[in-house]
Amino acid sequence: MHYLKSQVLVKDQKRNCLRFRPNESWNHVLKKAEICFWLQRNGYEFYTEAEFKTGGRCDIVVYSPEEFIVEVAETETQASKDNKNKTYPAEIRWVNAGTPFNEKDIQ
């Protein structure tokens, strides 16, 4: 447990807060907000826009009660998904920005 925490740069991360980047679409931000709302309500510890020591930045990294990464896909190419699946330090749970949120997508 807590392997993933050692792989993330601390920087200015704030626990259980929604952060987004200026280039993200409204649908992308809303989907992240829905996911974060569900995670918060269900007792998960998460950080958004987490940067890895090995490079790359994920939408949401979840530390507990289990460790995984959530990526919201909207215009993501399959090559980009494959690269993240190979290089990110934990399992990625992919969620489509254009579909209604379903908690089963991240469980």
Plain-language structure description:
It is a single chain. The protein is an alpha+beta fold and 107 residues long. It has a single domain, classed as Trna Endonuclease, Chain: A, domain 1, CATH 3.40.1350. It is built from 2 helices and 4 strands. The protein has a 4-stranded mixed sheet, with helices on one face. Strand 3, helix 2 and strand 4 form a beta-alpha-beta unit. The chain is globular and about 30 Å long. The two termini are 17 Å apart. The mean pLDDT is 90.
In a nutshell, what does this entry contain?
By secondary structure, this protein is an alpha+beta fold.
Report the end-to-end length measured between terminal Cα atoms. Answer: 17 Å
Overall pLDDT metric = 90
> Which overall shape is indicated by the principal axes computed on the Cα atoms?
globular
Tell me the Rg in angstroms: 13 Å
The count of strands amounts to: 4
Tell me the strand percentage band: 15-25%
What percentage of residues falls in helices of 4 or more residues?
Answer: 10-25%
Largest sheet data: 4 strands, mixed
Query: Taking strands numbered 1, 2, ... along the chain, how are they ordered across the largest sheet?
Result: 1-2-3-4
Helix/strand/pairing category = alpha+beta
Number of domains: 1
What is the top-level CATH class? Alpha Beta
- Write the CATH fold name: Trna Endonuclease, Chain: A, domain 1
Question: Would you identify the regions where 5 or more consecutive residues have pLDDT less than 50?
Answer: none
